[in-house]
Prior knowledge:
Layout: E1 3-13, E2 16-25, E3 28-33, E4 42-45, E5 50-53, E6 55-60, H1 73-82, E7 85-90, H2 101-114, E8 118-124, H3 130-133, E9 143-148, H4 160-169, E10 174-178, H5 181-195, H6 204-207, H7 210-224, E11 231-233, H8 239-242, E12 255-259, H9 261-265, H10 271-274, H11 287-296, E13 304-305, H12 334-343, H13 349-363, E14 380-391, E15 410-420, E16 423-427, E17 430-431
Parallel strand pairs: 1-4, 1-5, 6-7, 7-8, 8-9, 9-10, 10-11, 11-12, 12-13
Antiparallel strand pairs: 1-2, 2-3, 5-14, 14-15, 15-16, 16-17
Amino acid sequence: MSRTLIKDATVINEGLIQKASVLIEDEVIAGIFTSDIPETDTVIDAQGLFLLPGAIDDHVHFRDPGLTHKADMETESRAAAAGGVTTVFDMPNCIPQTVTIGALDDKFRKASEHCLVNHSFYLGATHDNIDQIEKIDASRVCGIKLFMGSSTGGMLLDDRESLRTLFSAASIPVAVHCEETSIINANMERYMQECGGEPPVQFHPLIRSEEACYASTAKALEVASGTNVHLHILHVTTARELELFKSGPIEDKRFTAEACPAHLWFSDADYSTKGTLIKCNPAIKTSADRDALRHALTNGLIDVIGTDHAPHLLKEKQGGCKTAASGMPVLPYSLPAMLELSDQGILKPTDVVKLMCHNPAKLFSIKERGFIREGYKADLTLVSHSDQGWTAGPHNNPSKCGWTPFEGYRFHWKVEKTFINGHTVYDGGLFDETIKGQQVTFLR
């Protein structure tokens, strides 16, 4: 039996910040000690460091299979581990799209060989794959991904009859991208005419507008209200959408909401300097929307933080509202960025852990992950905090595409080590690629 003691850490877990030592035996947490600390052969001195549960990211695009020129299982799982993320749920808009059980099985097989972190995969919803949805193994598949916007054409599903059929058939959470395509198309035509061609990126939040987001989210929640589905609205971007959700413990909710670090960090004022680097769908909107999202982190309206990590090559980010690819790589910086917001007084470090670790585990009914508890898998991250800080850049970005919109920002929180199932997979910039993550098990 392998035994490792993480000694004298400042543990942030379940609403508390306290000095403690954590014993790992093989893959699990064997004990949490504030006194009478046991002796072991392997001791990690964590004095001055913060120990958190590993983050669970419910929303990543690893681009594998089919788009591996810009990302793949191995590179993006390294990016996750470097960011203190120990579990990821990957989206279906790859090539081929993950819309069959066979395609899901192929992803699981590939992940077992190449993914450094724990994982599960969404099955994409289409007009004609209800038979596949009904065959889902709820113990191994995180959820169903529904595109109610024009982000991914082959999986667009937004008519009420099809939505009700899907919601009635779904036995696991349905994660939804909400934007109203007809509104987006009308806005694009209008601004194409006004600009005499492709609008520059500053028009992106006007084309993929507040109205487009609100109309789609409202429709999704209305149709779902007559079913028993758990509807999880991804990347909420507007203050107006927040009015559709109720505050309260995640255990009591059937409709939940996700926010992304990019929408919490940037606003439309940043298009002038960041340009298409911050072009994503739904669009980053006004500073008032950003402030409302930040407030919702602590008033119970936002339930989880997911990155929507979506790598593209820099050459694919050239152009304007029509031609520049939408999406950005953020995994290595998501936890430091959220903890940075705690330094700004926007939320507490315990809130960060709740939103990035505890709540995703609860929402998806994950077995024995997301908390520092005896008997749980030892998915952990050690984080430092310093006044000097460190600067995000290509030298500390393992993502295959090699860039990030956070480049040049100085963070004061830094991931030092990441443990996956008790193994040190990331340590100060180095990776143990002999270790592979596990399939996540769901208790449903």
